[in-house]
Amino acid sequence: MSIRNVCLAAATLAALAAPSLAGAETSPNGQPIMKHVNVAPDATVEVSNVQGRVEVATWDKNEVELVAELESPKDELEFEANERYVRISVERPNGKYRHDDDDEDDATLTLRVPKGIRLIADTVSADIAVSGLRGEQKLESVSGEVQTQAFDAPVRATSVSGEVSVVGNGGKATVSTENVSGSTTVGGIRGDYHGEVVSGEIRATVAAAQKIELNSVSGDIEIKAELTPTSRVNMESVSGTLTLKIKPPVNAEFDVESFSGDIDSCLGPKAHSTSKYTPGSELNYTQGNGGARVEMQTLSGEISICDR
Predict the structure, then answer these.
(1) DSSP per residue, 48-96
(2) Whole-angstrom distance, CA of residue 40 vs CA of residue 17
(3) What does the pLDDT look like over 149-204, one tens digit per residue?
(4) Residue 7, helix vs strand vs coil
């Protein structure tokens, strides 16, 4: 069962025990629509928007406050809430949307929520910006930008063509990002990191992670990492460039292979050919005391490894 279906099922059951606030309404004369509801500190909040922006900030109250600004008279706001679950959605009956400099039809949803809530945000051409949230996050957009922070709870941030940005705040959150043609920036996280990109790029800084998995088709990946003795790093690409910069001292075992791309390492020996009949090359060695494990593979992309 999908996460959304689980949430909807949970909300249905909760509604039997607690009254809900529900309804669809348009913005009268362009005025903001304001909603307010008391919730549990670990409630689930689900937000959906077509075009515009979703902004989520936290406070110390066990309350959800919403200010909705609907520029289009055709947009309808749906708001359903009880103590355990809040659903907020902007519905556009004609289904038309665009992401450009014209904000005539934008819908802006501004929320204040408890720090520990679980957030699910889903947009088409609307940006998502989250700050201060310590609960689990699942953020998805088609062409909008996604910006958030990571503490200790899992964070998943996805955009097809928009930019993705995740900034760590000292916790050990497991972070996952996906991007097709946009760029992904991840900085200061200490937990595990899984990143996927097709033709865009990933730029990441990870400290003391146990597991790092990065995959690309034609996009470039550059990661700066601090490895522990039990760290496991796996980077794969078809034609994109893989760059790994490791904070010294480096104690790791390396297994690196490229079918036709170059392998450049400022650590250990030089790469050697896998066969006199094919252009492939590989590099297998132990640096320092070993411990950490690094595996990197490309088909035609270049690989670079260094400690600076």
Answers:
(1) EEEEEEEEEEEESSSEEEEEEEE-STT-EEEEEE-SSEEEEEEE-TT--
(2) 14
(3) 999 999 999 999 999 999 999 889 999 999 999 999 999 999 899 999 999 999 99
(4) helix
Specify the DSSP class assigned to residue 278: S
Question: Do 92 and 236 belong together in one domain?
Answer: no
Structural domain that includes position 82 = 1-121
Do 190 and 115 sit in the same domain of this protein? no
Is 0.85 topped by the overall pTM?
A: yes
Distance (Å, rounded) from C-alpha 234 to C-alpha 215?
8
Q: Please, are residues 252 and 227 in contact by the beta-carbon 8 Å criterion?
A: yes
* Contact in structure between 243 and 224 (CB atoms under 8 Å): no
Q: Is 62 exposed, middle or buried (0-12, 13-18, 19+ CB in 10 A)?
A: middle
Q: Do 160 and 44 fall into the same domain?
A: no
Q: Are strands 33-38 and 281-287 parallel, antiparallel or unpaired?
A: unpaired
Q: Residue 158's closest CA among 135, 181, 131?
A: 181
At which residue do the structure tokens 């490229």 appear? 258
Torsion of CA 95, 100, 105, 107, to 10 degrees: 90
- What values do phi and psi take at 17, rounded to 5? -105, -15
- 8 A C-beta contact, residue 107 and residue 55: no
Quick check: is 248 in a domain? yes
169 and 75 within one domain = no
Say which residue the tokens 């902004």 belong to.
55
CA distances from 275 to 60, 62, 229, 239, 281 (A): 63, 64, 32, 21, 8
List phi, psi (to 5°) of 16: -70, -25
> How many domains are there within the chain?
2
